[in-house]
Each structure stands twice: as C-alpha cells, then as structure tokens.
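Assemble and predict.
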Amino acid sequence: MQQIINFILQYKNFLLYIFLLIVSLGFTIQSHSYHQSRFFNSSNWVAGNIYNTSHGISSYFDLKKENTKLVEENKRLHHLLFNKNEGNPTELDSLQTTYTIATGQVIKNSYANPRNYITINKGKNDSIKPDMGVITSKGILGIVENTSNRFATVQSILNENSNINAKIKNTDHFGSLVWNAKTYNVVQLVDIPRLVPLRVGDTIVTGAMSSIFPENIPIGVIRQVDLDNSKSFHHIDVTLFNDMTNVKNVYIVNNTKRQEILQLQEDTENNDQ
Amino acid sequence: MINNLYIINIIRFALLVLVQVLVFNRLNFFGFINPMVYVLFLYWYPIKQNRAVFIGLSFLLGLSIDFFLDTMAVNAASSITIAYLRPVIMRFVFGVNYEFQGFKLGNATQIQQFTFLALLIVIHHLVFFTLEIFSFANLLLLLKKTLSISLATLVLCLLFGSLFSIRKE
C-alpha cells in the first residue's frame, strides 16, 4: 500500500498529464466521429456574448458591402414577384407554407479548420432548433447544430462531417456533398453514377431528398470531374457560389413538415423489420 | 510579491484568450494561417512553480480557447503536452543552469530563449494538427500546416516577447 502511494506521489504530474490527455482525447475523438459536443460549443453564454460584442463593433466596417448585397437580392426577388402572373393569395398564408424563414447574422466564422462551425446571433428564443438549414442570398451555408437561448452554432458545409443531398440542376441525378478539408471554396460531390453526362460548369443545387433544405437552392458549379477508385462513380469538385470567407446576413430555413416526413420514414423502416 | 504573480498570470491568461479568439483566429493569412499566440502563456509562466498547477492551468487555457473555436479539446490536449514536456525541453535547451535556484529566463542568451520558444511552438502545433486532421492520409497537409503556422506563430511570439519583455519574475 505504502508503495502504491509512493508511486502515485512520485509520478503525480505524469498521471495528471495522462488523465487530462485522455479526457481531451475522448472529447476530440467524439467530435471527430459524430456531432459537436452538446455543451462545449461557442453558442454558450460567455463565448456568444463576447463574439456578439466584437461583431457589434466590426460589422460597421462592411455595412456598405452588405447593403449592396441585400439590395441585389431584393432586386432579384422583386423581379420574380413582378413577373409572376396571378399570385395565389393562399400561398402567402403562413399556416400553409412548407418553409418558414428567419434571418440572422454571423458573429463567428471559420474556414481554415477541417471541422468548421459558424455561430449566429439567433437561438431558442427566436425558435431556432437543431437541424434547420442555413442559407445566404448566394447559396447554402450549413445546418444548425446546437442552440442556446440567444445563439446557435451552425455546422458549415466546410466540415468533414457535413453531408448534404445535392443534385445536378434540371436533372434528378443526386449525390452527397462532402468536403475534403483542403480548399475553402471547393467542395466535393460524390456518388453520382458514371453514366450521368457531366460538363465542367454545370450548376449544382440542393436535392429534394433532404428534409432540411428546400429543393433547388444553389450550391456551386462543377470545376473538375474525375472517377473515384471504384471507377463507377464520379468524383466532382464543385466551386461554391458563396464566398465562405465573407458571410454576414443569413436566412434560417425551417421545414414545417420535417417532423412528419421523419416520422413517416421511421415508421416505414420499423414496419419492414 | 506572490499576489502580484497571481494577478499577472490571471490577466495574461484572459488577455491571451481574447486576443487569440478575437484577433488571431480571424487572420486567415493565405486562407489558413491562424497563428496560435496563446503558447506565450506557457513560455512566460514562472519556472519554479508547482508543476501540477501548471498542467491544470494549461488545460484550462486550452479548453477555454476550444470553447470559442468549437475545436473540442484539441487545444487543451496540445497545451498540456507542452506543459508536461516543458521541464524536459528546458533541461535540453538551458543545460545544467536550469537546475540552479537563481535561474531566470531573462538571463539566458537570446539564442537559448529563441530555441526554447521554437521547440514549444513546434511540438504544440505538431500535436494540435495531428489531432485536428487525425489521418495520416493527409500527411502532407499536416506537415504544411505545422511548418507554415509554426513559423507565423514564432514570428508573432518573438514580436510580442520583445514588446512585453519579462523583467523581474
């Protein structure tokens, strides 16, 4: 017994180091394999407020650029609205729409890590929930992962764990959008069969399979097409429309029918067994 | 004297965390270079202090940066590694001098201080990017990031070091 105590006393620094290392490795491996930790993320009170203050100061510097972007978008939407003949008033009824939109602002962004998360200044108080889609005026940005009362963290599409359903515009060939952690403006589209004709410059949009994003949200254009190792699928590099280094105003998309879709899919799978 | 030491380290801790997350993690020089200047805390920390407290503090330092950056415990793991290895590195760099009671970092030669800092940074970054990238398939990416970001951190730390030099600790 004496010897054991002596041993512990003698190596207490080493044991402390090993203990803390195992704790941190545990956290790290968990974050690699699955979602972000539930509590330790930048949507917590302290980090959120500090980022919010810093955002409050720095956002003044590019107000002009942001305004131009928003005006551009308004112009496009007005164009759509005015050219739409005989709008059906029931479509504007918020009880009947499938997607509801909330706005928010990015208060922390990163794109240099293999797993990037974005923090936005809307949270549970604004009825933001995990698994809502986040888009900008140019294209998709990510999926809400954790929320606190006033903030939410978003898993960016520049994240190794990200996996989003995408398709070639005007066709129904779909695949998965992933990121190889190399360049911040290029993502990869995989699982598109080899026989699908593709051209460099084709547009990639979100697919209909996802219950998170509406169909046909722009993502990017094809930059390069290769075959994967099995030679039966395309491996496509996609240049993003969104400049991931410069995002400020975002829209959070809520699919009001998501619960119903998920419930139905789960029931069907259970019935099969 | 003792209180003074505590206060200096607490202020240093808070300032380095804030500077790291609000300034240096937004640099994105060349798209990926974000120097990690908080390593300076471990460089400046007094030598003749309880090692267990030191390791604990570096764990807290890394963890608080992880909170902000959503990189769960990667910073913490690399900080405690250099905190644990610091005496070994010091013995390697400063030789037997380091064992004497009167040894101060400020008294060592410039080259010794530089080597000490460089070793801390390189080991820290190597552990950090190994854990962050976590696959040997991306060995080139790992080496590229470790080398380029170590260099950036080293330059910035040297600048900070000469701005806020250690005089009497």
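Chain A is about 30% helix and 30% strand.
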